[in-house]
Design goal:
The complex is a heterodimer of chains A (513) and B (162).
Chain A lengths: L1 E3 L4 H5 L2 H10 L19 E5 L2 E5 L7 H8 L9 E4 L4 H4 L17 H6 L4 H7 L3 H11 L11 H10 L6 E6 L8 H8 L1 H15 L3 E6 L4 H16 L15 E6 L9 H8 L23 E5 H13 L1 H5 L2 E2 L2 E2 L1 E8 L5 E6 L4 H8 L9 E6 L6 E2 L10 H6 L8 E6 L4 H15 L5 H4 L1 H13 L4 H18 L3 H5 L1 H10 L18
Parallel strand pairs in A: 5-6, 5-8, 6-7, 11-15
Antiparallel strand pairs in A: 1-2, 2-3, 3-4, 9-10, 11-12, 13-14, 13-15
Helix pairs in contact in A: 6-10, 6-13, 7-8, 7-10, 9-10, 9-11, 10-13, 17-19, 17-22, 19-20
Chain B lengths: L7 H15 L6 H12 L6 H9 L3 H10 L11 E6 L2 H4 L3 H12 L5 E2 L5 E6 L11 E3 L2 E3 L4 H9 L6
Parallel strand pairs in B: 1-3
Antiparallel strand pairs in B: 1-4, 2-3, 4-5
Helix pairs in contact in B: 1-2, 1-3, 3-4
Classes of the chains: A alpha/beta (513), B alpha+beta (162).
């Protein structure tokens, strides 16, 4: 029997090390695998038995003796028994491409990665020209998974076509949105997939240096990525003359320093260059003048990870998933006040209600769901009337919401939506880079105006003022920080107006939003 | 982090050594600041001119970078860093109550250090552990589903801090 107990941040935060120690004390050395992202079951103990790979969860160190007893008798009689891992409905119903390997084995084991089809994409890419790789990415329909959903192939083409001695691949791993952990899960459970995707990107556009800009809030991912890069370099999947091809690609992790704005690509580039993370005006596009002024591909972790799948299985296979212009799979991260939170990888098109009800099984607190925030702190709060919207970039844009990076944060009926709107402004105060006045000052004024509305001070006038302030921020900011902070604020006003001390009929404001 | 109090002479020596080590790295500033902070626990004002000279920048530029990022401290901090997540997923699971409890228990506000120098309390915006909120970070360890009672337990493991 082989035992597996994860080493990802969430499993560790729930006591996985103590479980591992209890297994060791009983004479069973566990494999420290990655997590499958079924976080409601973590720490999830998996056991490879004659009857297949079965699971127990959530497991504490104190459960180990009884589980070991059950394994020598009737495992299914144990109260924490979850059955065969692959048959757990939460997992079995997903369409896992990016997360197919997640949790299967030790994330740093190269043999395990290769056994599970790893480096197939790289092998295929090494036989293609740069243009042929770019064509594959275009055909796949892959759009950037960081939030902006820009077609990856077009960005790559621009960098490919630039004539420059030095180009860069930059991975945006500054996953700052609340409710998101998809990038972290890739980096902690399947880091070679990201390394492979970045190497393919380098081959495609002719870049020999890559940087992963990782947020400092992810110490475990930092440790695992560095270890994975070292092992991949020793095994010649990185460095000079990759697998005898004569091609070169070097990769380095750079740590951020706790600034949300550095998830914005131009701010990230400034930060990588060693400066304040101030947003740059575009043009010039980073694809043409990016890091250190050179042509640069900046893609999110999930975008680059998907590249490995696309090159391994073909553009058509990837393109077959999804709806409309949203192709492939979406990594939905179910979080907040939810019974069964975790990573749900599905083709675009599932509704929010299916996600929170079928997968999530309602709130952790057992109270009714009141609001769902999708897409991080700049995403709208959605009331029940909007939960049947399919998760697709265009469908969400049509209701003034966004999919963003795929975070879904659930609030129960005790949530104070005026307080959440105030927080949206407060967050912008803390995290604005300061370049645009509407964002830097507007957010400060926004907090004050919301306070006045809630206190009932000149409510009608202040509501008009708040809407006008939101207009100014939306139209007068260079990036999404100032430009989209009004989304959660306005959605709270529109759909949860009673929390602001008045009825929603009074809240139409000056604009027609 | 940190190695207790060093003399200003030792501090300058440590900073100069790190500047030499990092100055030729492309985009050296953040890696260098992280290294200085890992060594000294914070980035002292006296490091600014040394960094500026080494990286061929003005002191204003160096100060500008240090002050931009939440991570960089310009004063000595506690032996342990305790960060409470303030982001939305944690709020939906009671982090506002948790932060009030933490401040009352430790007798400090955010960005302050307990009188015994043991703990510095900080806010953090997301630890990526949002399916099992509320989350806190103590030094490099993340903890999930932290109730006020659990918080007290975790703090008591760090030694006296009241």
């Amino acid at each position: 029997m082989t035992f597996y107990i994860p080493q990802d941040t969430t499993a560790l935060a729930l006591g996985a090390d103590a479980v591992a120690a209890a297994l060791q004390a009983a004479g069973n050395e566990p494999v420290r695998n990655g997590s499958r992202g079924l976080f409601w079951l973590e720490p999830l103990l998996e056991v490879e038995t004659d009857q297949g790979r079965i699971g127990f969860g959530p497991v504490g160190a104190e459960d180990i003796p009884s589980i070991l007893d059950a394994l020598s008798d009737d495992a299914s009689a144990h109260p924490l028994y979850q059955g065969e891992i692959a048959a757990i409905p939460y997992l079995a119903s997903q369409q896992r491409l990016t997360y197919a390997r997640s949790g299967e084995g030790d994330p740093l084991c190269l043999d395990n990665y290769r056994r599970l089809d790893g480096f197939t994409g790289l092998k295929n890419a090494l036989a293609l020209s740069g243009q042929q790789i770019v064509d594959q990415v275009k055909e796949s329909g892959l759009r950037g998974r960081g939030g902006a959903a820009f077609p990856a192939g077009i960005k790559w083409q621009t960098v490919h076509d630039c004539d420059a001695a030095q180009k860069y691949i930059v991975c945006n791993a500054d996953e700052g949105d609340s409710g998101t952990f998809a990038d972290r899960l890739v980096m902690e459970s399947d880091p070679y997939q990201l390394i492979e995707g970045m190497t393919i990107a380098g081959l495609a556009v002719g870049a020999t240096q890559g940087y992963i800009y990782l947020r400092s809030e992810y110490p475990k991912a930092h440790q695992l990525l560095n270890a994975a890069i070292e092992k991949a370099t020793v095994a010649n999947f990185l460095g000079d003359n990759i697998q005898g091809s004569g091609k070169r690609f070097d990769l380095e992790v750079r740590l951020g320093a706790g600034a949300y704005i550095c998830g914005e690509e131009t701010s990230l580039l400034e930060s990588l260059e060693g400066k304040r993370g101030m947003v740059r005006a575009k043009p010039p596009l980073p694809a043409i003048e990016g890091l250190f002024g050179k042509p640069t591909v900046v893609n999110n972790v999930l975008t680059l990870a998907a590249i490995s799948t696309i090159l391994a299985q073909g553009a058509a296979a990837y393109q077959n998933f999804g709806m409309g212009r949203s192709r492939g799979t979406l990594a939905i991260q179910l979080a907040g006040n939810i019974k069964r939170g975790g990573l749900i990888e599905l083709a675009f098109g599932v509704t929010l209600r299916q996600v929170v009800e079928d997968y999530g099984q309602g709130t952790f607190s057992d109270r009714p769901i009141r609001a769902i925030q999708v897409g991080g702190p700049l995403g709208a709060f959605l009331p029940e009337s909007q939960w049947d919207t399919p998760m697709d970039y265009e469908a969400f844009a049509a209701i003034k919401a966004m999919i963003g990076h795929g975070g879904v944060v659930v609030f129960d009926d005790t949530a104070d939506m005026a307080a959440q709107a105030r927080f949206a402004m407060e967050f912008c105060v803390a995290e604005s880079c300061g370049k645009c006045t509407p964002c830097r000052i507007g957010s400060v004024r926004g907090v004050e105006v919301i306070d006045r509305i809630v206190d009932g001070e000149n409510r009608d006038d202040n509501l008009i003022l708040l809407h006008e302030l939101c207009d100014t921020m939306e139209m007068g900011s260079l990036c999404a920080m100032g430009g989209m902070t009004p989304f959660p604020v306005r959605s709270a006003l529109t759909h949860f107006g009673q929390d602001f001390g008045t009825s929603s009929q009074d809240l139409s404001g000056s604009g027609d939003h | 982090m940190g190695v207790g109090r060093l003399s200003s002479h030792q501090t300058q020596g440590a900073v100069s050594t790190l500047v030499e080590q990092y100055k030729d790295l492309p985009g050296a500033m953040l890696p260098l600041l992280h290294a200085i902070q890992a060594e000294l626990g914070y980035v002292p004002d006296s490091a600014v001119p040394v960094i500026a000279k080494g990286l061929n920048l003005s002191r204003a530029e160096v100060h500008g970078v240090i002050s931009f990022y939440h991570d960089f401290k310009t004063h000595p901090v506690g032996k342990h860093s305790v960060q409470i997540c303030r982001a939305e997923a944690c709020q939906s699971m009671g982090s506002r109550q948790l932060e009030a409890h933490a401040k009352a228990l430790l007798g400090v506000d955010y960005h302050e250090t307990t009188a015994d120098g043991n703990i510095t309390l900080e806010p953090v915006y997301c630890l990526g552990n949002c399916a099992c909120s509320p989350s806190i970070r103590i030094d490099d360890d993340i903890h999930a589903r932290v109730s006020p009672e659990r918080f007290e337990q975790l703090i008591s493991q760090l030694g006296v801090s009241k």
